[in-house]
């Protein structure tokens, strides 16, 4: 049986007294996109850097294409593509020349011009690295990671800071890599990115995997009732007013424009008319106007908030 692209078991990594990864386990399949989704500081970069062989874990087991990323670094180098956050490109190097140099290290590279075109860098082919924009540098790093047709690519925040057009070009490239059988392990704190690209999402918080699965598995394909109230509600009282077992959660801590509430059934049934009526009746009895009331599909963000009580957005 084929080994997984990446297998991490009980990884622990600290920097002095800062614990970055605390007992993380995950598996990323070959030929699939796996997204590590988590807020800033969750330990995503540290995890990926250990998998890339750039850092050693304090403890735990890491296998990349069945091999130890540090002990077998030489064997893995031609098979694994890495997108470096900080480039590693000489500032005077010109984009096209640099990429052609990268291509020359591989036996069967993707032509540099094809990648420049695909990632919207063709017009910057003659530009020195120091004069590229942040987004261009990022796309060049992605091109360098994939030019050798690796079996597996690590992409750390591949689209952070890109404008929508460049982000979509990067998403297309990632989708094509997957179609070509390349395994991709990417980190992101973009919900949409994870939802669109990933076959499997691993939600990371405080250095641990708190949930994993496809988007449908994580959201349980469930529906929820959502509304906003301008004052804080007694969630326990609302829960006990429901006609069938359910959950009531506040999504934010309430600010000037109130707090968002989510009401779900305890089983996977969609909230029916009686369930919805119970919510609105309870609100009426308590003189609360449920603003923007709607029944909708649960989102990945809801799941993340339920699991961690934290927001995924940049703060
Ligand atoms: N080289 C380092 N030295 C000291 N502390 C570090 C170092 N790298 C990361 N950390 C700390 O380890 C924790 C996890 O950081 P890490 O970069 O792995 O998380 P992340 O999920 O990738 O976050 P981000 O999305 O902000 O990059 C954070 O508290 C961070 O400050």
UniProtKB/TrEMBL annotation:
Transmembrane segments: none
Annotated ABC transporter domain residues: 6-231
Keyword hit for Transcription: no
GO BP of this protein: response to antibiotic
Keywords noted in UniProt: Antibiotic resistance, ATP-binding, Cell membrane, Membrane, Nucleotide-binding, Translocase, Transport
Membrane topology classification: Peripheral membrane protein
Record-level Gene Ontology MF annotations: ATP binding; ATP hydrolysis activity
SMART domains cross-referenced by the UniProt entry: AAA
Name recorded for this polypeptide: ABC-2 type transport system ATP-binding protein
Taxonomic source organism: Haloactinospora alba
Phylogenetic lineage: Bacteria, Bacillati, Actinomycetota, Actinomycetes, Streptosporangiales
């Amino acid at each position: 049986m084929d080994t997984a692209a990446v297998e991490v078991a009980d990884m622990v990594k600290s920097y002095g007294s800062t614990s970055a990864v605390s007992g993380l386990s995950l598996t990323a399949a070959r030929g699939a996109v796996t997204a590590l989704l988590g807020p800033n500081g969750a330990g995503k970069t540290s995890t990926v850097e250990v998998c890339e062989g750039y850092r050693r874990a304090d403890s735990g087991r890491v296998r990349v294409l069945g091999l130890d990323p540090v002990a077998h670094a030489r064997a893995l180098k031609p098979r694994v593509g890495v997108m470096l956050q900080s480039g590693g490109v000489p500032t005077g190097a010109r984009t096209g020349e640099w990429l052609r140099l990268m291509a020359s290290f591989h036996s069967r590279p993707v032509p540099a011009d094809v990648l420049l075109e695909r990632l919207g860098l063709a017009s910057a082919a003659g530009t020195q690295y120091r004069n590229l924009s942040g987004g261009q540098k990022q796309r060049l790093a992605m091109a360098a990671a994939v030019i050798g047709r690796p079996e597996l690519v690590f992409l750390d925040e591949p689209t952070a800071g890109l404008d929508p057009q460049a982000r979509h070009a990067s998403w297309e490239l990632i989708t094509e890599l997957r179609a070509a059988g390349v395994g991709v392990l990417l980190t992101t704190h973009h919900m949409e990115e994870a939802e669109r690209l990933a076959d499997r999402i691993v939600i990371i918080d405080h250095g641990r995997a708190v949930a994993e699965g496809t988007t449908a598995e994580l959201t349980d394909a469930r529906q929820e009732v959502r509304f906003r109230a301008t004052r804080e509600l007694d969630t326990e009282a609302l829960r006990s007013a429901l006609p069938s077992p359910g959950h009531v959660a506040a999504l934010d801590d309430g600010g000037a424009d109130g707090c968002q509430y989510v009401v779900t059934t305890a089983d996977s049934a969609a909230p029916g008319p009686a369930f919805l009526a119970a919510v609105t009746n309870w609100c009426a009895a308590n003189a609360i106007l449920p603003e923007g009331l709607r029944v909708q599909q649960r989102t990945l963000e809801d799941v993340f908030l339920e699991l961690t009580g934290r927001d995924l957005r940049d703060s």
